[in-house]
């Protein structure tokens, strides 16, 4: 079981690293193009129409990717002071349940995200003319990462191993 956890941790390290970098890059690009839109609107009196749609696309992707990394880094929403006050055995049980809930949430994102992508793939987005499903692909992508990261966290808790 430890070798499975070690392999999963290595894969998740790479996935988390790339997800964080892509999220940062998406935020940087979104900031740059939004600045371009402001410049176009107030200086050139001609605001590019594609900026808002691209910014929305980028927000979806970097939010879901960074949210998944938050699960991996255990910086997701939680009430730490309650968990810290619990006895060790109960704390472990709570963390396992939290991991399972996070994994279930990821599965819901994957399932519903895939359905949304499937239902909207044939619809073109206004202005940038890409499939609407490509916009929503961020949802199942983030869900898959959340499931993988939550499984690793749950296994670590069950095996009493901390991240390296």
Q: Which structural class should the secondary elements be placed in?
A: mainly alpha
Q: What is the overall silhouette?
A: elongated
Question: How many separate helices?
Answer: 6
Q: Using the CA coordinates, give the radius of gyration.
A: 19 Å
Which regions have little confidence, pLDDT < 50, spanning 5+ residues?
A: none
The N- and C-terminal alpha carbons lie at a distance of: 17 Å
Order of helices and strands: HHHHHH
Q: Would you count the extended β strands for me?
A: 0
Largest sheet: none
Q: What is the percent of helical residues?
A: over 70%
Proportion of beta-strand residues: under 5%
Mean pLDDT: 90
**Number of domain modules:** 1
Question: Quick summary of this structure?
Answer:
This protein has 6 helices and no strands. The chain is an all-alpha fold and 164 residues long.
